[in-house]
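WARN no homologs supplied; continuing
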Amino acid sequence: MPSVKVRNLKNKEVGEIALPDEVFGVEMNEGLIHAAVRNYLANARQGTAKTKTRGDVRGGGKKPWRQKGTGRARVASIRSPLWRGGGRVHGPVPKDWSYKMPKKMRRGAIRAALSERLREGNLYVVEDMKLEGPKTKVFVDVMAKLGFFDGKKQAKTLLVDSLDNRDLILSSRNVQKTKVVNSFGVNVYDIVYHEKIVLSKGAAEELATILDPKRENGAKEAA
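OK structure emitted
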């Protein structure tokens, strides 16, 4: 069972927390993580790209010249795709790119990604994330003490805490490369994208409960 040192916002050790092997000690599964990331990105696509065909472009109702006798090619409309300002042939149309992925696979990918971050030493647990008011400067100072800010260089950081922590959300929203979510908002893409994962002690315990595979198997048997 892996254990992580718990630190306070001044980067001082205040204890240790044991994390369950079933969630934070899973073997790396690159194929599953790749499939989950592709699913997340596909579901995030808007699919609203749309071009106009000759029937959608305004104008072109009048035939530009008569069909025969002019010596020129016959033309029915100035909105033909062959003309400048005309419609487009076989252009993109609105499309739904999303597809479903089994919940068990999605959660398995999150467990594998979290476990890999822990093995890399890029998963941190802090006692709490209570700040002294909603001030960006206070938040930046805390991140610097934790070692995520080094002069002008900033690590991409994912903070997991309760969304009731209003000071944390307001203080971090103007800081680039930083994202705050709660335990239920953790997804595999954010874990892979961000270099550092910071969990509050309460969020770590909540994640261990949410992602526990025994819970999934129990729910399946009950169904």
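The helical segments are 21-24, 30-44, 103-120, 136-146, 166-172, 188-193, 201-210, 213-222.
OK
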